[in-house]
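Bit of a strange request maybe. I'm writing a small parser for structure token strings and I need a real example to test against, not something I typed by hand. Could someone generate the tokens for this chain?
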Amino acid sequence: MAAHMNGIINASKLTLRHWRDVGNVSGRGKNRLLAGLPSTSNTLGQKRWVSGAKGLVYQDKHRLPQSNIHATTAAGVHTSALLLRTLDKTLLNAEEFIDLTGRVTKDVRFPVAPEQPSVKIRYFNLGPKTKRFPPDSQGFLYWHLDPDAPLLSGQVRFRVTTSSDPATFPNGRDLQLPDGATWNISLFDIARRSQYSGIRVCLVSEKLVTAKVLYTALSIFAPYGARTIHPATGSLLIWKFGQTFLVDLRSQKMYLWIIGSSAGEKLSLRCLFSIKIHESGGNGISKVVNHMPFAGRALVQFERSTLPEHKGTRTVVLRIVKLIELAKSEDPDEASGMPEPKEGSLVMTRRVHRHWAPWSVDVDRPQRGSEATGPLARALAILFDNEDDHAGGSRGRG
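Reply from user aminoacidic:
Good idea to test on real output. This should exercise your parser:
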């Protein structure tokens, strides 16, 4: 296990550089990486964590990093920060009710993490300015996890309610961002960023996540030029077939993350609704031009292929579930025979010999010129693994 943890740390040095709360490594080689666990010299912390601390430690005693941002002792800061007892939506009471209307930020603290800094709750950063919370932003912060979703997809959300009575929670709505997305703080940011150390302690103490899940979130990254990138708040996360997501028909590239219970891969979708055409210039030199004959937006989803040519393989296709907007170029040459996107149809791509066929990826087929599968295949294979894991779990529960 120690070798496994060291492998994660060494493979993702950028993660640890971003994590400002990395603990020291003792001369005996034991990492003292703590997820904001209160000091054992703190009597209250000892009493509160005498049994819960085990949930933060691996078998080899590795722990998640402790924040090096010291809790501010100024009375003014402590009195202005709201104490949140829980993020478990089943345990909420009126004391957790927050009114964020018109605020730029709101400081919250957690009694189970007395030594950790306040967490600043912000609505939306827009360039150099921070947008204020909209009207009627009152309700409860809580931990959200979709049914049958991997723990890595969990996030803190804000449920807008009509009163401080937790009984109004089920009939409330989750706070939205200006673009219509749901306001949240993702598990990936909670795991990596020191300002969320208080949330980390709260989640682990309530057994909403485990230290292992937080370490898994740290281990997921992808190369991006000379640096590496990680999933974060706002990243598009996909974990099952039939999960819809929005695409822009004129986009040449979009990124998403395929995640499972213990793995994650970045996936790049390129030129889904465009076509590369070789054009000859005036000097006789040919150049490749991207034509995008259609504009608009569509909801699409990954599916297991049931096409005859894919029988016996683990092949993924992409289906158009709903067309939200669709406009066609007035230039008759622009489309170049590209099939018009239609609801219920598969996304098409032009193969060799200039014929059109459904976009597809066989996740077990080696990449051309290699014995290994490509990044698309590795990412999409996680969807099959998730499906098998869920089926096995369902049989076990039966």
